Amino acid sequence: MFSLTRCRRASAPRVGERMRFAELPDDILILILSACHVDDLLTLRQTSRRARSLISEYTNTIAPSVARTTFPQNHNLLAHRPLRYTVQWLEDLIPRQLAAILVDRHRIAHDFTQQRYGIPAEDTYGDELRARIANGWRVLRRLADIAKTVHSSSAPDTWWPASEFSLRLMCPSRKLEQSRQKEDAILKRRLAYIESIPLQDAKDYKLMFMLLSSSFRTSISNIGEDHKPWVFDWGSGIDGQRLFRKGNSWLSWFVLAEGPDLFWKQWWTLPHNSPSARHYIRDRAVDVWARTPRRLADHQRDHARKIQEAVNNSADVCTDFVSVNPIPYFTQYAECRLARWKGGMLPAKETMSHVPFHVEFRCPEELVQQHKLFLQGKQAANTKHVEARG
Question: Which domain of life is it from (predicted)?
C-alpha cells in the first residue's frame, strides 16, 4: 500500500532512496490519490497544493475510485452517477452514508413477532427517507460549523481588555464568563440560521434528530463497571433518549458542537472491531463533560433546548408532527417486506451489521431493580402454572 507522505522511487539508481510525496510523477500520484479513502483525499487536498491541482484536473478518474474504496459494499449509495464527478459529490457521500447507516441500524426486534424497524441500506425502498435524513445531517453540519467559526474567530484577547489579561489567568470566573459569551454568540447565529432555512430543511433535521436519539442506549444488559454511567443529566439516563430529542440533555448540546464527524468516526472511519471505536462517542462525551464546569454545562444545556424549540417552530411540529415522525416509513416498509416475502422475493443484502451503531451507557440502577422484580414475578407465575397443571 502506498504511503500518503513518502514512497520509494522505483527508477532511482540507488535502491531504497526515498522521495517526497510532492516529487512523485503525476501518474503515480493519481494512482495513490485514487486508492485513498475520502477523508484522506480531502486532507491531502487541503495540505498539498500539487495534490489539490491533480484532484481538480483528474476528478473524473479519482472521485469514483475513492468512493468505491471508501464504500466497497454500498452499491445503492453509488448507484446514481452524477453527470460530472466533483469533490463536492465526494463530500456529500458522507451525510448520505450516515443517513444509510441511521435508517438501516434503527431497529427494534421483538422475539414474538420478529418485527423490525429499519430499512437495509441496499434496499431502494428507503431512498426517500435516506434523502431526508441526509439533508438533516447537512443541517447539523452547518450548525456545528457555526460553533467552529465563532471559536476560531474569537481570540482570547478579543473578549476582555488587554489590561485584564493577568486577572483572567487568576480568576476562573472570568474564563467561565468568556465561555458563556462565546456560547451566547453561537446561539444567536444558530437561531438566525434556523429562522432562515426552508421549511423542508427544518423538517428533515427534526426527523434526523428523532432517529438519532435511538443510538444512545442504556440497555438492561449494560451492567457493571465496564459500562460508563450517563452522567450528563438527572436520572442516569433513565429517560435519556427523550431528553436528547427535546434538547433537554447536555448530550444534545454536545452533538450540536461536534456535528456529524462524531458519528462518522465511530460508525465508519475507525476500525470497527476496536473497543475505542465502539465507545468513541461515549468516551469523548464523558471526557468533554468532565472538563466542563457545571455552571457552563447548564448554560449549554439551556441553549440546546432553545435550538430544539426553534427547530420545532420552523418545522411546524405542533401542527404537522406526521412529517417529522419516522415510524410511518418503517411500518409501510414492514408491509412491503411482508408482501415481498409472500411473493417469493429475496430480502435486500445486509451490509451494515458490522457498524458499531449504539452509544452504550450503564443501565440505571432503578431499571435494573425493576427488571429483577419483573423476572421474579415471571418465575413465580410460571411456578404456579406448573403446580396448577400438576
Answer: Eukaryota
Q: Cell 431528553 appears where?
A: 243
Rounded to 5°, the CA angle 311-131-199 comes to: 30
Query: Mean pLDDT of residues grouped by 10 in the chain (390 residues)?
Result: 42 46 86 96 91 94 97 95 94 98 80 65 97 98 97 61 47 85 97 98 97 83 68 70 90 97 96 88 94 95 97 95 93 93 94 92 61 57 62
Residues 27 and 155 in one domain: no
Q: Based on the domain organization, do 257 and 307 belong to the same domain?
A: yes
> Is the same domain home to 301 and 199?
yes
Distance CA(375)–CA(298), nearest Å, equals 38
The domain total for the chain is: 2
Domain shared by 327 and 226, yes or no: yes
Q: Residue 154 is part of which domain span?
A: 101-373
- Predicted model pTM: 0.85
